[in-house]
């Protein structure tokens, strides 16, 4: 296992996730590709995670979230009004109502010229960062992870409308760094959620921490939370 910085070169701006706080964590991207390769088998994907990523004291995978050269606070994210075709998937509509209490009648939409014709389209604002590359710190097998990231040719949400298209993935080996290095950007800012147990790794006088219940391992969209810390939102 080697310490490395992965450099993901982008063709298009990268969108920020629904929480609007930070860029993707590397372990979420690796897990996503492995699940795809295993035909949806999450247990098999999780076993293979250990082949390409180390762990930090059995708490989290040894990697950070994405950042760009000027640090997470280098510039404010842009906002763009985008449209998606209204879905006819009744199962999806039912899930939206059951899980979120949002009925189809409440979805924001309007008639838009999509796909060369006037169709009902959902309207929303997408936040994105206009940067030529996203960087990740990691300890594991950088060559294998670089190949995995290119199984899907995009990074982050909004790929259906052109965000986060990957051009290439390269890496630089780094020597003599500790576990705290994996979790931070060059400005000493946290790039990923961490459990409270990992707080002693960080210099409290230099690292801005936001305390709240967090999920610290993929899949991040479900599962139990635990006391911990999340990154300061991009742009602050």
Task: Explain how this protein is built.
With 236 residues, the chain is of the alpha+beta class. The protein folds into 2 domains: 2-77 and 127-230; 78-126, no CATH class. The chain is built from 5 helices and 12 strands. The chain has helices spanning 26-37, 42-52, 90-100, 142-149, 179-183; strands at 2-10, 14-15, 55-56, 60-61, 78-85, 109-114, 117-129, 133-140, 166-173, 194-195, 210-214, 226-230. A hairpin with a 3-residue loop joins β3 (55-56) and β4 (60-61). α1 crosses α2. The protein is globular and about 55 Å long. It starts with a strand and ends in a 6-residue tail after the last strand. The mean pLDDT is 80.
- Using the alpha-carbon principal axes, give the shape: globular
> What is the tally of beta strands?
12
Give the total of domains: 2
Q: How many H/I helices?
A: 5
Uncertain stretches: none
Radius of gyration: 19 Å
**Percent helix among the residues?**
10-25%
Beta strand %: 25-35%
Taking the sheet with the most strands, its summary is: 4 strands, antiparallel
Secondary-structure class: alpha+beta
What integer is the average pLDDT?
A: 80
Distance between the termini: 34 Å
Query: Could you spell the SSE succession in H and E letters?
Result: EEHHEEEHEEEHEHEEE
